[in-house]
Design goal:
By secondary structure, this protein is of the alpha+beta class. The chain is built from 7 helices and 8 strands, in the order E-H-E-E-E-H-E-E-H-E-E-H-H-H-H. The protein folds into 2 domains: about 170 residues, no CATH class; about 60 residues, no CATH class. The longest helix has 17 residues. The radius of gyration is 29 Å and the shape is flat. Keywords: Membrane, Transmembrane, Transmembrane helix.
């Protein structure tokens, strides 16, 4: 087993589960030929803390400032990216934190180092909370600051040649870090041509396509299909080709008896 010192959240998601999740996501987004090149575990440092802020209002007559609003909450500061993260803060409590992180030797692990010590983190958190709550920095109190490591699985995926992405999954919750980890691939022009040619084998489909194109010809250029942005243009081009073939007699429409 590998052992890493420092408070951390436990690893609840196994490597096999991560690979299955990534493959499922890739399949849903139509990346059928994508390949998982590598998977590693990152221990990311976060400073979690509690904050209290207050805003003031000045009386017009006496110029005396009174407390107008108090805000109490908790947040966390990503010690690598230097960004606030309320989601991580909600995961951390005394019952979930473990004093040491352990994982099998077969797993590749990278423990990230904080970019700044706790003393600086408190000042940074104070500034960022002040900006978030729209109050002066002096009106922000930070307490209970502690460093906690959060496990993230990082899968390097080759979607296609010279197109790689990294998918991050929280090892504690089993959720993708981003809501949309992979963009929908859609279909390539070649695939769309193949599908459309297959449809156009039936002359009756030509009429439907022509009517559809004529109804919203402007959309062909200005508003392509969100899922298949090339489809309408491909259909339009193939319709033109089909009409030409029909005109020169290469294709004949069925004659009713």
């Amino acid at each position: 087993m590998q052992h890493f010192p420092g408070n951390s959240l436990p690893l609840n998601i196994k490597l096999e589960e991560v690979q299955a999740m990534v493959e499922e996501e890739l399949g849903e987004q139509a990346w059928k030929d994508a390949q998982i090149k590598s998977t590693k575990l990152e221990l990311c440092p976060y400073y979690t803390f509690v904050f209290d802020t207050y805003s003031e209002e000045e009386e017009s007559n006496t110029k005396i400032k009174n407390v107008a609003e108090n805000v109490h909450g908790k947040s966390s500061l990503n010690a690598v990216k230097n960004e606030l993260d309320e989601v991580i803060a909600e995961m951390v409590d005394p019952e979930t934190i473990q004093a040491e992180f352990s994982v099998a030797n077969t797993v590749t692990v990278e423990q990230k180092k904080p970019r700044f010590p706790a003393e600086d983190a408190k000042s940074v958190a104070q500034i960022k909370i002040a900006a978030q709550e729209h109050v002066p920095r002096a009106n922000v109190h930070i307490s209970g600051l502690q460093l906690v490591y959060v496990p993230f699985w990082v899968a390097k995926v080759e979607l296609e040649e010279e197109n790689e992405v990294k998918l991050r999954i929280n090892g504690f919750t089993g959720e993708f870090e981003n809501e949309n980890p992979v963009e929908y691939r859609g279909k390539s022009p070649t695939e769309l041509v193949g599908e459309t040619l297959s449809d156009l084998r039936s002359p009756s489909n030509w009429v439907e396509y022509i009517i559809s194109i004529l109804k919203d010809i402007g959309d062909v250029i200005l508003k392509p299909d969100a899922e298949h942005p090339n489809r309408r243009m491909v259909i339009f081009i193939l319709i033109v080709i089909a009409i030409i073939l029909l005109a020169i007699g290469f294709v004949k429409l069925p004659v009713p008896h």
